[in-house]
Amino acid sequence: MNKNIEKLYTIAGKKERLIIGLMSGTSFDGLDIALCRVNGSGRNTAVTIEKFTSVPYNNIFKEELKSIFSRHDADLEKVCILNEWVGLQHAAIINDCLQNWGIKKESIDLVASHGQTIYHAPRFLHGFEEYPNATLQIGDGDHIAVATGIITICDFRQKHIAAGGEGAPLAVYGDYLIFSNPGENRIMLNIGGIANFTFLPGDMDAAKVFSTDVGPGNTIMDSFIQHRYPGKYFDENSSLAMQGTINEKLLAALKQHSFFSKSFPKTIGPELFNMIYLRNAQQVSATESLSDADIMATLNRFSADMITDAITRTTDPALKYSIYVSGGGMHNPLLMKNIKILLPAFPVFTTNDLDMNPDAKEAVLFALLANECVAGGNDQMGENREGIPNVSMGKICFPS
What we know:
The protein has 400 residues and is α/β, with parallel strands linked by helices. The protein folds into two domains: 3-170 and 360-397, 2-Layer Sandwich (Nucleotidyltransferase, domain 5), CATH 3.30.420; 171-354, Nucleotidyltransferase, domain 5, CATH 3.30.420. The protein has helices at 3-12, 59-66, 76-101, 123-126, 141-148, 157-162, 171-179, 219-228, 248-254, 275-285, 292-313, 333-342, 361-375; strands at residues 16-24, 30-39, 46-56, 110-121, 134-138, 152-154, 186-191, 194-200, 210-216, 322-326, 348-350, 395-397. The strands form two sheets. Strands 1, 2, 3, 4, 5, 6 and 12 form a seven-stranded mixed sheet that branches. A five-stranded mixed sheet has the order 9-8-7-10-11, with helices on both faces.
């Protein structure tokens, strides 16, 4: 037997595994690294975060990613080179963390790497009916495996697409495994560049589990700040948005896209919600002369409106729900205020209230997907409905 397969077989049979989960979002702020102790699999999964850190990317890293991110005219040679380079950068960060934590790499069973999304192209967005849904993440898993010496599970989204999904959102699988709770209908809202949520029914009926993207979270706000204020990457503490006034004409124009009337579940990306989208909305609404503050106030309300509209459309007004928020958007005070105002009947918490660091959540979820890849994969959810295929995800990369 191949020694790597033999080792993987041993890992799969263990009662618990030490897995490093990695997450790097479309905001390019840094790499989230969660060292997770995972016991069992499926509905019997228990996870403990042993260590967590978020390593900020420097400006060189950010600018390199921005040069190819969500661009029709991306340099193919640059994409090729950065695929390897990002993998090596992530491996170096892992090695540094293990050294700082005083943990030997031999004690780690798996690395779970989401990679860096550079383009998301569901059929709805690319428009070519003869071609499938597609998505692309760079940061090669083999480079991570070889450079760290740890078996690496990566490229999770491809199996989701191959099995009939759109490659997102994947949070539903981890949310279902660790956050389902008898007697409480939970909405696990993640606000990254794109906002998405998972519905977890209080009656524990796996067939009712539901997950979808809803539209922009931080993506247009961040793009506007980066465009207008070089060197800044987001509206820290909503400082600019809080100085502005919502422009109703621009807000109405921003909402006029067929994506928002598309049935759930659905996915989308910054490929749609970007500066071009904003400029088109301003032209349609004759609001090109708005101040930066008014634009930011309106974009903030736009994200809040579409998040709350999706939650309202997919929930039963006769039932009670609790919302648990994670992702970078939870640190945007005006966005959170708007969401709470628009959903007065929904108590809003963060995953801190469930003993899960909100900033670590996505890295942990990918560790759980890696765990399911090698040791689980038998739980069913969502009745295999469109957009939520019952599959184990991840490609396995050996160190040698």
